[in-house]
Amino acid sequence: MPEKNLITGAQNTWCPGCGNFTLQFALRNAIKGLIADGVPLENIVLVTGIGCHAKMGDYLDINSFYSIHGRTIPVATGIKLANPDLTVLCCAGDGDAYAEGLDHLIFGAKRNTDITVIVHNNRVYGLTTGQYTPTSPLGFRGKSTPQGAPEEPFNPLILMLASGAGFVARSTSRKMPHLSGIIGQALRHKGFSYVDVLQICATYFNVSELYDRQGYELSDHDPSDFSAACAKAEEWDYNSDAPIAFGLFYQEEKTSFEERFSRHPASPGSRNEQIRAFLEMKR
Ligand code: SF4
Q: Which of 15, 48, 119 is the best mutation target for the ligand 1 pocket, counting ligand atoms within 8 Å of the beta carbon and taking the most?
């Protein structure tokens, strides 16, 4: 059978120069790597939110679920609990993950649900034509803030480290091989894995030059050192002219939510027994 290229024939409506194209091919390459390792394609599920990023579900030829604003993580959690054999990943925008669905992001990390969350962080609401998000810089001028955003951005890496995420990484749509590699690592991590992707919005917030000038790849960094990860994450506050590190900040393997759930006294027996009991329930 010929190798599938995993790209659908759907008409692509992303703007020319959009960083989502890099994400699409980086994700495709990472998924091909999983398949080469023996993961069946039918066992891989993508959940998207709402926004420009969400068209990934139309453009990648894999099982996908188009969810709603900010709700990728609860949907992915349900899929993973129902069938722990699946590899479940979410593509979410910064509006999705850091605003509408922020509580789900925190609880995904806290519970250590075995899913991968990739945030297309273009630091703007692109689909709705340029409003500021929680990671837009102070003074960002857009449709909702013509005089400049009056708020400081927050640092999502610090938030994820504080919430207990076992895999915290950052990459950018300006570095395709790096992004592919980081997504591949995240997909293989057992437990909650989070990747913040500084993605270019070519139309409403094109900061390619900034990421090229300030960005550097982590080296000599021990990802098992929590304090070092926090220090690295604090280096850039999503606002200043400080250096921007790309790479794996922190990694720790610990018991996943699914493992704890299946051991819970309220859910005895094997997964098959649980499913059988559920199906035989009188309704
Ligand atoms: Fe990409 Fe921005 Fe266009 Fe959306 S609005 S498709 S994020 S360039």
A: 15
Query: 128 CB under 6 A from ligand 1?
Result: no
Q: What is the DSSP letter of 174?
A: T
Q: Which two tokens stand for residue 161?
A: 């480290």
Instruction: Assess whether the C-beta atom of 122 lies below 6 angstroms from ligand 1.
Output: yes
pLDDT for 161-202, tens place per residue? 999 999 999 999 999 999 999 999 999 999 999 999 999 999
Tokens representing 138 are: 């102070």
The 10s digit of each residue's pLDDT in 118-149 is 999 999 999 999 999 999 999 999 999 999 99
User: Residue 126 CA: which ligand 1 atom is closest?
Assistant: 5
Interior angle at CA 197, CA 192 and CA 201, nearest 5: 145
105 token code pair: 């992001």
For the four alpha carbons of 172, 211, 224 and 119, in that order, the dihedral sign comes to negative
CB of residue 203 inside a 6 A radius of ligand 1: yes
Among 13, 18, 133, say which to mutate for ligand 1: greatest number of ligand atoms within 8 Å of CB: 18
Taking CA atoms only, the protein residue closest to ligand 1 atom 2 is 201
**% residues pLDDT > 90 (the chain):** 88
Query: What pLDDT is stored for residue 247 in this prediction?
Result: 98
The CATH number of domain 20-282, selected from 2.40.50.140, 3.30.450.20, 3.40.50.970, 3.90.78.10: 3.40.50.970
Alpha helices for the chain (secondary structure H): 20-36, 56-59, 72-82, 94-95, 102-111, 156-163, 176-188, 208-214, 226-234, 257-263, 271-279
Query: Measured between alpha carbons, how far is residue 93 from residues 9, 167, 181, 190 in Å?
Result: 23, 19, 20, 23
Two tokens at 192? 């909650």
